[in-house]
Amino acid sequence: MRSGTPKGRPAPRRRLPKCPTGIQGLDEVTGGGLPRGRPTLLCGAAGCGKTLLAAEFLVRGAVTFGEPGVLMCFEETGAELEANVASLGFDLPGLVRRKKIVVDHVRVERSEIQETGEYDLEGLFVRLNHSIDSIGAKRVVLDTIEGLFAALPNESILRAELRRLFRWLKDKGVTAIITAERGRGRQMTRKGLEEYVSDCVILLDHRVHERIATRHLRVVKYRGSLHGTNEYPFLIGEDGISVLPITSLALDHPASNGRISSGVTSLDAMLDGRGFYRGSSALLTGTAGTGKTSLAACFAQAAAGRGDRALFFTFEESPRQVLRNMRSIGMNLAPLVKRGALRFHAARPSLYGLEMHLATMFKEIAAFRPAVVVVDPINSLLAAGSDSETRAMVTRLIDSLKAQQITSLFTSLTHDSGPLQQSEIVISSLMDTWLLVRNIESDRERNRGLYVLKSRGMAHSHQVREFLISARGIDLVNAYAGPGGVLVGAARSAQTTRDKAAAMAGRQEARGTDGQAFTHTLERAIGASAHGNGRLRR
Amino acid sequence: MKTMKTPKAKRPRPTLVRFPSKFWELRLYVAGHTSRSLTAFANLTQICEDHLKGRYRIQVIDLVVKPQLSRGDQILALPTLVRRLPEPVRKIIGDLSDTERVLVGLDLRPPPPA
Predict the structure, then answer these.
(1) Which of chain B's residues have a Cβ under 8 Å away from the Cβ of A168?
(2) Contacts of B97 in chain A (CB under 8 A)
(3) Which of A342, A446, A481, B68 is most buried per CB count within 10 Å?
(4) Are the beta carbons of A127 and B98 separated by less than 8 Å?
(5) CB A165 within 8 A of CB A39
(6) Which H or E run includes A161?
(7) What ipTM was estimated for this complex?
(8) Which CATH number fits domain A259-476: 3.40.109.10, 3.40.50.300, 3.30.230.10, 3.30.70.980?
(9) How does pLDDT run across A480-497, given as a tens digit for each residue?
């Protein structure tokens, strides 16, 4: 780069007017929508969602933006199309009745056409023009105009006319989507339509990776506008298409000073006495059976109990199983679920790809607007993708959650010994707080110890606390730290009792009280203490 | 059109009208009085006068005046001549300057061997 000539940002810049599609995520990727008043080429192989995307563009335009639209389809009949988009919850017939959308099925049969000399496609123009003017359409979709190539024998006339058509659409000032079949090799479309539509080209793709299919969208070209250049996964869901929103490409999410309780008072105490930062992300790792889900449920319950909403993604247990198990430790979550304060979303990790899970999670979050999100566990999801995918996915999820100031807790299963999994290293750096639960084995007894590995921006405890799960819930107990070392479990409670007794004995002795009970206590205390010391000396 | 592909249809046929009693109902779609429209109309009347005298009717539809009519006959290309009768419906696109092909399209000539 030459110095003195800073690239970009010339002082006054006229922004290209854009036409919002209303499709989740697509407007973010394109920086506001498709180029207004210009045609956009949408290409992709069969079955990758071109027609649905184009139809959603029209429906959203008619419903949300008050822009009527014309759908000219060359392949499907109006009825077929209506049925197809009805599966996305779009009431196309209703919109047609209310004169918001015109559906025109152009049927051309090669067999009944005889060519006899010069012609043009003025009939198509007249027809389209009539449809546009009849409802004052602002949006036009031509669904697989390449169908014409099969119907009309003279390709040179057709090409000249298509060029004229796209020019005409521009002059007409309508925002148009033209769909086209993906070509072989490097060609974007089978008939080279990209030569004619040069303002914006969007490519859809449907790929299978390790037996999991994911749809991708890429803005190949967008003349006169910045746009996201990546391949973004997208999902065709029950209520339309959502392109995975890349909400924050920059690290500029807000940082709140507010705190949110972890649901366990003694854990809050370890975290500066006040719990997690609002809008931060916490990772809870631990070996099998260390109570990760219980702790996560506790966190969700506390949030729901405070009047916030909590969303619990469970990838290994069914919601009912979680409810039952939590009841066994004194947590009754069912009323919270009934009240709508707590929502479970359960899915098998192998149900679909990582990106699809992410898309589903985004949708759930957008629909439920929770204050708190729990993902239990995240590692079973991570197994579905490679490290780079994993990182991208978790980054996107965390960015999105942070931007919305949603506090999140992710659990992750680790192995007892051995190095950390690569995925853990990858995601742990994205987390603000990392809690670790591990089994501590001593004296033929297994106990759980919890410690705060890191917690950004607070003076957290560095101690290992004993993590107790009982029928009354979760509690953290200070491990016994005495002259003999750190004791947990039965050893800790024995030692604590001895200490109490000794202290009491000491007090009573100082007061000089005597009596049967006192002597008895004193003897017991001394005995126990001697025994304890002896044990500690070993 | 399937009948033409069967072996039966391959037998030599008279080059002139097969069914003299038939009536030709034709619709010519145009857009405005362009030179191409006028050429097509002139070509059509000439052919009809030569081959179908007294047994045809031509209806000219100007889509500039009645654009809504373009849907019914699925008109894309202009000019288009639609042969409503005799059935089946056929579309002949272009300015009808290729008389041989127009005759094939009107079912007055067998299609040229492929």
Answers:
(1) none
(2) 116-118
(3) A342
(4) no
(5) no
(6) helix A155-172
(7) 0.78
(8) 3.40.50.300
(9) 766 666 677 777 778 888
